[in-house]
Amino acid sequence: MTNNDTQTILRNIPGVDYLLEKLKNDYDFQYIPLSVIKSSIRAVLERVRKSIIDGDEKTLSDNIQNEKGLFHETIIHDILNHAREIIAPRLVPTINATGVVIHTNLGRSILCQDALERITQIAGGFSNLEFDIKKGKRGERYSAVEELLCDLTGAESAMAVNNNAGAVFLSLNTLAREREVVVSRGELVEIGGSFRIPDVMEKSGCKLKEVGTTNRTHLRDYGSAISEKTALLLKVHTSNYTIEGFTASVPLSELVLLGKKHQLSVMEDLGSGSLIDLSKYGLAREPTVSDSVAAGADVVTFSGDKLLGGPQAGIIVGRADAIKQIKLNPLTRALRIDKLTLAALEATLNLYRDEADAIRKIPTLRMLTLPFEETVERANKLINDIKLKILYKSKNTNATCNMANSTEDSGKNNVVVGYADLASRTGGGSYPEYSIPSRCVTIESKHISAALLERKMRMYKPAIIGRIDNNRFIIDTRTLQSGEDQIICSALADILNRK
Ligand SMILES: *Cc1c(COP(=O)(O)O)cnc(C)c1O
């Protein structure tokens, strides 16, 4: 390749105006802003020019072998792809086949239908967000949910902020700034990397007074830590881990008595904060928000998007005087709940007026309480669908597939579709990592490793997130939403039948 050849090829690179004219013929052109098209042209031309100058084998041979027209077509194709990628949304729907119900990385709770409808209604117009319609004057943002929260939890007063981290921060800052907060060493938790009780304590201007040990803390430990500098006794729900063996912690009710004796406020960060006792549905017994209120805590905080199954929010319930003080803290403004969230929260909470309604209509609760037998049914159906789609393809679509079992070989594409009884999980920062029996679909292929299949499923559009167990790709049906099994079948067909 001489310098002259390179110059000739460089001269073959089309000009911007020529490309724009050509691009106009593409159907997608009308949907892509001109500024995006132009910057894509620049980016692609620069890349082409660079690869020619660098003597990139493929660009050069393409150019030599192909007609000039084909070279141009490739460039146009690249420009459109580049532009489409730029305008494609980055936040996209994702299929949760992990079996982790409250998956923080995948957006925690899915909203119920009622919440979605209320968001559309409130977001599309004006509302009485901070307007008291009866009195005709300024009202409180929390009015939409305060009464409801009090009814559901037995608290005197309630409010909601942006998230539970904010709720804890705001409550500590209001009730104990520049004074000491007594916490058990066993409850100095970190939740999801950035929320750590000691750090939140420091940032909220409070002094942490640790008591007891990691595994055992007694009432007397709290008692001897109390001084004139103490403002608050704090209990933190150890949401994402459990300590087993020789352990002891002080029940909230006893802390409340101690607080009363010393005229100190008592606060509990419940983290997940269930409004329903889920042990009725076969899950572990966890304290509900009502339990904490009944035990006499002055302030109880919890998330809106964990076990509650609503939008991201931090809910604060408790005694009227404590909540009133918190509402008056100027920081409330910085942490205030948005109207879309408020609309969704109200709609979600409304369903809790009838427990059966809540279980049936709130996706998080529905997934958590889905009986094992139903995961078996879902898994069987998915296994059959996958087999029809990838194994027997169009040739023999009405083949009767037997109940799946892990030893059956698929024949020509060497794929084994089976099942395994594994465990779904409630999810980090809700219950202490609690498992729920679930029947999962397993996929193994002789041609593609579980790791590569996992990656290809993840890169599929929409992304399908599963997990690997024992060198098999695992699809947990508990967390699948309606219609997603068909997408999974198509993805597997695309990926495995291509082999
Ligand atoms: C999840 C959790 C938080 C943080 O709540 P966000 O709603 O994620 O801000 C705080 N404390 C506990 C105990 C938690 O489990």
General description of the model:
- This protein has three domains: 3-86, no CATH class; 113-361, Type I PLP-dependent aspartate aminotransferase-like (Major domain) (Aspartate Aminotransferase, domain 2); 369-496, Aspartate Aminotransferase, domain 1.
- Strand 6 and strand 7 (195-196) form a beta hairpin.
- It is globular and about 90 Å long.
- It is 43% helix and 17% strand.
- Strands 4-12-11-10-9-5-8 form a seven-stranded mixed beta sheet, with helices on both faces.
- Helix 7 (143-153) packs parallel to helix 15 (339-351).
- With 499 residues, it is α/β, with parallel strands linked by helices.
- It starts with a helix and ends with a helix.
- The chain has 20 helices and 17 strands.
- It binds pyridoxal-5'-phosphate (PLP).
